[in-house]
Amino acid sequence: MLTDSEIISTLEMLENEHLDVRTVTLGISLLDCASHDPAKVKNKIQSKIMHFAENLVPYCDRIGQKYGIPVVNKRVAVSPIALVGAALTSAQLVDIAHTLNAVAQEVNVDFIGGFSALVQKGIARGDQALIEAIPHALAATDRVCASVNVASTKAGINMDAVMHMGRTIKQAAKLTAEKDGLACAKLCVFANIPQDIPFMAGAYLGIGEADAVINVGVSGPGVVKKAIDRALTTNPDLDLGQLSDLIKKTAYKVTRVGELIGREVAENLKISFGVVDLSLAPTPNVGDSVGEIFQSMGLLSIGVPGTTAALALLNDAVKKGGAFASSRVGGLSGAFIPVSEDLNISESARKGHISLEKLEAITSVCSVGLDMVAIPGDTSAESIAAIIADEMAIGVINNKTTATRLIPVPGKAAGDVAHFGGLLGQSTIISVNNGPNENRFIRHGGLIPAPLQSLSN
Q: For residues 46 and 174, is the Cβ–Cβ distance under 8 A?
């Protein structure tokens, strides 16, 4: 039970500190929509999504108004389309993407995720067709998001898939060159992808999930920053252990809010409640920044020495607070570092405080990876694949989720600014060491074997 003071502080979070339910994501299994006939697949997909999702947005709006807690994004995540459309060609899967986009518009959700493949150990026929379809599918739709899992601690790193994704990203950027490579902002490459992510662009419904499930993503970077600022104003001598405890308590309250909303939405839709993903996901708005938390803790900027230690403290405290608040914490649950989506981090990139190498270093302790990183348009496919491989290695060796959302911006160089619009924001393009050149290491392909710690049975 919350005390009176905790209730009052939660109300203050809502009023002044950008606390919201960032997303309610309805996961829908489409495995029973599979067929050799693309027309049947499209009809089944449209019918099933409409059946489960037609009331999602009205219920979220109504419940948000009831509690005074806005649900900012309403989304749908589906089973990996590489499985649903395993019998289809690449061109037919692009048509499936159009169907997903149309039904997303019809039920009025912001994004639909699950144009996905799981290829950590090998690439099947359906996986190959889907990966080939990704550039055209993302370029031709505005609500479809894609993800490909190319590595896991149990399987190792599929370097053939990594190289394939380097080429895919280059092509997706080329097809949306007039929008600074915007298609790439809807594509994540993962190691150890969870089955229950509510946040885009990585959301999909895992194979072991129910037929339909509600997952909630709650975000509160502004809440955490304000809590730290208040505490240090009162007592500037707080040590880092005390700050960690403060963040845990704040995360606890944020998690309880998210679960309250999520369970009521699930009850209204008469489907299962899944998880609360407590991830500090920023927006380009002032006061809603993960980067500002580092400054509140005493750093000049994210990226300077001390950043990795501060992020480790923050991520650990968020997870502990969420786990204490609910037995249904899942997804990624930690701190996102999306460069273009966080005004403070984007500014740090502009000033040169944070580099690609430092971003990679801090992904060893954050919840995602190289997220919304704009790189020069002349970066070679091999260099992009090599960046992905490095990030996958961090995830595989440390048995954690890591990912990349890289955007090679056509026609622009390091120091230029890429504009993506809306929640995707803008960012200074970060230089890539040896970027334009080929990378013979990546061309070897094959499988980087799973580490010794994979033998955990």
A: no
97, 166, 283 from 287: Cα distances, Å: 36, 35, 9
Please state, in angstroms and rounded to a whole number, the distance separating the CA atoms of residues 375 and 151. 23
Could you tell me if residue 412 is inside a domain? no
- 227-271 per-position pLDDT tens digit: 898 899 989 999 999 999 999 888 888 888 888 888 999 999 999
SS3 call for 402: strand
CB 79 within 8 A of CB 30: yes
- CB of 348 closer than 8 Å to CB of 426: no
In sequence order, what are the residues at sequence separation of 6 or more whose Cβ sits closer than 8 angstroms to the Cβ of residue 44?
Answer: 30, 32, 33, 35
Q: At what angle do helices 159-175 and 381-398 cross, to 10 degrees?
A: 130
Is residue 2, in this structure, part of any structural domain at all? Answer: yes
3-state class (DSSP) for residue 334? coil
Higher local confidence (pLDDT), 285 or 70: 70
Supply the Cα-derived Rg of the chain in whole angstroms.
21
- Domain around 274: 1-336
> Residue 158 and residue 390: Cα distance in Å, rounded?
12
Higher pLDDT, 254 or 3: 254
Beta strands in 246-355 (DSSP E): 272-278
Count of domains observed in the chain: 1
Over pLDDT 70: what percentage of the chain? 95
Alpha helices in 31-89 (DSSP H): 38-53, 56-67, 81-84
Say if residues 191 and 395 touch (Cβ distance below 8 Å): yes
With respect to residue 312, please indicate whether it lies within any of the assigned structural domains.
yes
**What one-character DSSP code corresponds to residue 271?**
S
Query: What CATH number does the domain containing 227 carry?
Result: 3.20.70.20
Q: Which residues pair with 371 in a beta bridge?
A: 338
User: Each residue of 95-153: pLDDT tens digit?
Assistant: 999 999 999 999 999 999 999 999 999 999 999 999 999 999 999 999 999 999 999 99
d(CA 373, CA 362) in angstroms, rounded, equals 14
Find where tokens 């991830």 sit.
279
Is residue 16 in some structural domain?
Answer: yes
